[in-house]
Amino acid sequence: MTPAISAQRAEPQVPTNASSSGSVSDTAPLMPETLKKAVEHINQLANLPDFKGATQIFVQMNEQQKTIEDKNGELAKLKDAIDGLYLRHQSLTTEMAELRTENNTLQGQLEEKEEEVSEGSRKADALQKQVDSLLSEIDGYVKNHSEFEEKKKENENKINKLELSESTLKEQLASERGKNQKLEADKALLEKSMQSIKGKLQKLINFTAGHSNESESSMLEQFSELWNYANDKLSAVIQEDITPDRLSVIKFLPEAEDMPLLASNSEASKTMRLAVMLAILSKQIDEEIFQPNYLSSDKRNFREVLTEVAYIDPEKESFLRSLLLSIDPEEQEKELERRSERIGQVVPQILTNLLSGEQGEKLQEAVHDVVQMAIRTWTPIQHAQKKYEPVFDYKNWDKKDWKGFKPAGKILNSGQAGENPAALCKFAVFPAMSSFGLDMDEILKPFALLVKSQKLYVAAEEDKKASTKQEINEASSPTSGKMSNKRRPSNAQQAQPGSNGHGATNGKGHFLGQ
């Protein structure tokens, strides 16, 4: 039921409650009939149970309305309280934000203060270290001061002792001054004596021929060039063919009977003849030119003696050699000319039967040129500070110190590796160059050896075997016996150069011997 209906029903209820059922009839004449019916109807409704329940509900509703009004009042109060709380909350929020801002500011200031405190702590630590260091230094100074005081006392004691010994030292000084004056006088005498000795020594040095300033490498290079020059000069002579009529009367040296020499114009025969000629020439140059001096006609005396001295005292040998070279240099120059002329005579005489007449003249010119170059080559070696000697005896040296002989313009096989030169070599065509020192000697330039395993030597042996076989066949023929004997005279008919008095064999036999 709505509040409007409740109000309509409540309005006629007042008179009903005000009068009893008997009073209605008292007022009836005053009401119109309709109103009367309405009142009756209302009375009927008021007596109904539903109306009573509705009335109770209306009463309850009034009570509830009052309760609602009370609650609304309370709610209004609560709203006012909430509004107050909200305003308080807003105020507190603002205050809290301000407090946070202030707190952050204070936190930053606190961190800055903490950093300042930390920096202050670091500075304090550094200052503490400085203080500790200063204290340590002070301790050191105190210690040093103590040591200084001790040393000062020691020095004072020493000074006292020195002062006590001063008089003694003065006496000793006076004595030493006297000795010094005497020593000065002795020194003056010694210097005067030394000057005299130096003068005599310089005079003695001036007596010597002096020493060459040429380097060892340059001298060795010239030594090699000498034999290359000899090889070229004699090779040019030997390369010319010999006429058949001259070949028929060629005579070979008896000492070279075991050599594969052949009266032929073949390349192998020419090379063998060239090797023999160069070996004879090199040994003659060694005996006549390669001497320490030219004072004596005995070619072995000074050379052997000075070599022995070089083993014992190289400096003494150098001085003696220079001194000997200074003795009568003009006469030594003349002796050198005589020796070079002797080579120019002896070598062609030894080899004359191996060449034609025209080749003999060319050989004499070639030998003269080679000898002159040998003199130019030997002069700086002869005057060197160090002792140098040509060596022909290859048997006492290692394989590394020798090489196979190579004719000018030819490239020959020097033999198989590992072969023993003493067993395979025929002779040394060119000597090695050695140096002598204290108890030692050393090969500086290798030997040039004629080796059996060389191709041209093998070819010459084959030519000789073929020629010998042909001669045997011709000798067995009655018609060719005289021709064979004429082509190859016997050794008894050949010239004997070893007995010609020119020293080609050193008076000791084989001209190709060691």
TrEMBL record:
Residues 1-28, 105-125, 462-514 are annotated as: Disordered. Residues 14-26, 473-483, 490-499 have a biased composition (Polar residues). Residues 500-514 have a biased composition (Gly residues). Coiled coil: none annotated. It comes from the Eukaryota. Residues 462-472 have a biased composition (Basic and acidic residues). This is Uncharacterized protein. Gene3D superfamilies: 1.10.287.1490.
